[in-house]
Amino acid sequence: MNVSQNVFLGQERDLRSTDAEIGSAVGSLARRLSLLGETVDASALCPAVERISAIQRDQPIWAERNHSNRIFVLENGFAFAFSLYPDGRRHIGDIFAPGALCNWSSVSGGMLIENVIFKARSRVIVLDRDRLTDVIADQRHLREAIERHEHARCHRRQQRCRGLIALPAVERLALTLLDIQDELRAGGNGEDWIGLPLTLRELGDLTGLTDVHVSRTLKKLQETGFIEKRGKRFRLNAEPKMQEALDYQYFFSAGICA
Fold first, then answer.
1. Domain containing 240 — which CATH number?
2. How far is the C-alpha of 185 from the C-alpha of 172, rounded, in Å?
3. Tally of domains within the chain
4. What tens-digit pLDDT sequence spans the chain (258 residues)?
5. Which of 139, 156, 187 is the last residue of a domain?
6. Where in the numbering of this chain does the HTH crp-type domain appear (predicted)?
7. Predicted TM-score (pTM) of this structure
């Protein structure tokens, strides 16, 4: 085990070990996969679970050092994928709420392998990659459900990238807030008032704006009535209008919103 893995393990606290508790935790993934089709029984994944751990503080997992033999599923909390430019700037490429597979591309053979940060107080299901590969090879319905889920994630990311290239700051941030709402709903949070899971700097790294610009743009969105904001919680008030204006499509939570 290398130094980086030792550091990562040092930030974890094992939570569960019994079969019943592992089965309950894996249920977060099953519920999420079931949003896109037939009900999924993810209990077959239990033999692939190494452990379930709590992240004590914001913790990066480096793709080249920690991803090689593990798959991470978020049971609770929030996480995001990121990459670093040579000059040290960070780009956040995707966001993860409960039930999300945070580094599936390392199994699927994807060319883009990103780092992941788990936010403080998150709970993470750690699966052995080889055991997981064996399980899904024998479970066609489970494999197809995961593929549908990851295709939806890819389409939503493409939609956001298109907007970040073409839209001005207000629309870019509005689109990003819609994505955050979509992700949180898919993770089981259907409340109107949503806790903002990212800092201003992290929102900037997701949208390509500075944290100061993000703050100013949030105020503009409040002035237009698109959002209400109370501390770190927000509510989207003009969601259907903004969705139409942005040509926005919900890829995960469409059934929840209907």
1. 1.10.10.10
2. 20
3. 2
4. 444 444 444 455 555 457 777 888 898 999 999 888 778 888 889 999 999 999 999 999 887 665 668 899 999 999 999 999 999 999 999 999 999 999 887 666 555 668 999 999 999 999 999 999 899 898 888 999 999 999 999 999 999 999 999 999 999 999 999 999 999 999 998 888 988 999 999 999 999 999 999 999 999 999 988 899 887 788 998 778 888 888 999 988 664 444
5. 139
6. 167-240
7. 0.89
Q: Is 161 contained in some domain?
A: no
* Phi, psi angles (nearest 5°) of residue 186: -60, -30
From 175, 143, 144, select the one nearest 157 (Cα to Cα): 175
Residue-number span of the structural domain to which 177 is assigned: 167-257
Helix boundaries (H) for the chain: 3-10, 19-33, 63-66, 105-108, 129-138, 140-166, 169-186, 200-207, 211-223, 239-245, 254-257
The answer to whether the Cα torsion of 56, 61, 65, 71 is positive or negative is positive
158 is a domain residue: no
- 105 and 68 co-located in one domain: yes
For residue 79, give the nearest of 102, 56, 99, 63 by alpha carbon: 102
83 and 9 in a common domain:
yes
In three-state secondary structure terms, 243 is helix
